[in-house]
From TrEMBL:
InterPro entries: MsrP, OxRdtase_Mopterin-bd_dom, OxRdtase_Mopterin-bd_sf, TAT_signal. GO terms for molecular function: metal ion binding; molybdopterin cofactor binding; oxidoreductase activity, acting on a sulfur group of donors, quinone or similar compound as acceptor. This is Protein-methionine-sulfoxide reductase catalytic subunit MsrP. It catalyses: L-methionyl-[protein] + a quinone + H2O = L-methionyl-(S)-S-oxide-[protein] + a quinol; L-methionyl-[protein] + a quinone + H2O = L-methionyl-(R)-S-oxide-[protein] + a quinol. Heterodimer of a catalytic subunit (MsrP) and a heme-binding subunit (MsrQ). The gene is msrP. Mo-molybdopterin binds at N77, Y80, E81, C135, T170, N218, R223, S234, G235, K236. Transmembrane segments: none annotated. Predicted to be exported by the Tat system. The position of the signal peptide cleavage has not been experimentally proven. It comes from Pigmentiphaga aceris. Belongs to the MsrP family. HAMAP family: MsrP.
């Protein structure tokens, strides 16, 4: 059973939407005044709880889509370390410990370094970014994330000329992650990007959502968000970032190489071997009989990212 603690209830949930939007405008004002990120000071000490992490919206990537209700964002999840059903992560992640937390950065970098979570919270000004998220399974959400471009962290560690790819290794703690008992994939869950993808301003080092720190089920305390790729590329609860010369084999590539490739760019024209990717169901919005939405190439971010794949056959590099 899912027990909701008071800390899980954020203003955006208990205030009617127009007021939430006003709050967003207010924050925009704060950004214009150069106040930078506000909030992010308090950090709950008990495992599983979230605290305020409010940041001014970055409207450079603004989209018109309606936000997916927080309730859906935090109860309909894929996080196999906590179980295979969509409700499992919210139900089974309460014992997962996210503090203290460190992310070690190693490999082909001039300045290898271990960041504490508090350092990551301060490495660059936090922004709110509303992104579409498209799962390879055919559903999508629109989520107000809090974080900053991964490029900030990458620049801080000074990649060498041999750093062609960036690998993201996530937590695998058998004591607090009951899903590790099932061998669906080889743990830990590993994902990777080409370095230019990782450096792209859209690629978000993510520390919160809906104005609070990340709930455990969404990848606390730090995760990746790559909005133009299928959701599985966005690894949760990252513990290690490794810069390498050769293309890494991700956990999903090892598990089912014919179904999950390295690139995984959202593409309605390239079906999964077992289903079409032409349409999607928007979680929380569509009624049972509502028509599905057309899936957009690069999840609608083509103007920003298509140039990364110029000259590449996107059927071959799926
Ligand atoms: N460590 C880890 N990261 C993960 C997953 C996972 O099972 N384990 N699932 C992925 C998939 S398939 C999706 S769709 C997104 C879901 O993110 P959300 O639950 O925050 O919406 O997380 C991705 N990151
Ligand atoms: Mo997914």
């Amino acid at each position: 059973m899912l027990i909701r603690r008071p800390a899980d209830i954020v203003p955006s949930e208990i205030t009617p939407e127009p007021i939430y939007l006003d709050r967003r405008r207010l924050l925009q004002g704060a950004a214009a005044l150069g106040l930078g990120s506000i909030g992010g000071m308090a950090w709950a000490q008990s495992a599983g709880a979230t605290t305020k992490l409010v940041a001014p919206p970055n409207n450079a990537f603004a989209i018109m889509d309606k936000l997916t209700p927080r309730k859906d964002v935090t109860t309909y999840n894929n996080f196999y370390e906590f179980g295979l059903d969509k409700g499992d992560p919210a139900e089974n992640s309460g014992k997962f410990v996210t503090r203290p937390w460190t992310v070690s950065v190693e490999g082909e970098v001039g300045k290898p370094r271990t960041f504490g979570i508090e350092e990551l919270l301060k490495l660059a000004p936090l922004e709110e970014r509303v992104y579409r998220m498209r799962c390879v399974e055919g559903w999508s959400m629109v989520i107000p994330w809090v974080g900053y471009s991964m490029a900030n962290l990458i620049k801080a560690v000074e990649p060498t000329g041999n750093a062609k790819y960036v690998e993201f290794i996530t937590a695998a703690d058998p004591k607090t992650m009951p899903g590790l008992r099932s061998r669906v994939i080889e743990w830990p869950y590993i994902e990777a990007l080409r370095i230019d993808e990782a450096m792209h301003p859209l690629t978000l080092l993510t520390l919160g959502l809906y104005g609070e720190t990340l709930p455990n089920q969404n990848g606390a305390p730090v995760r990746l968000i790559v909005p133009w790729k299928y959701g599985f590329k966005s690894g949760k609860s990252i513990v290690k970032i490794r810069f390498v010369e050769k293309q890494p084999t991700s956990a999903w590539m090892k598990t089912a190489p014919s179904e999950y490739g390295f690139y995984a760019n959202v593409n309605p024209d390239v079906p999964h071997p077992r289903w079409s990717q032409a349409t999607e169901r928007r979680i929380g919005e569509d009624g049972l009989f509502a028509p599905k939405r057309k899936t957009l190439k690069f999840n609608g971010y083509g103007d920003q990212v298509a140039s990364l794949y110029q000259g590449m056959d996107l059927v071959k590099f799926y």
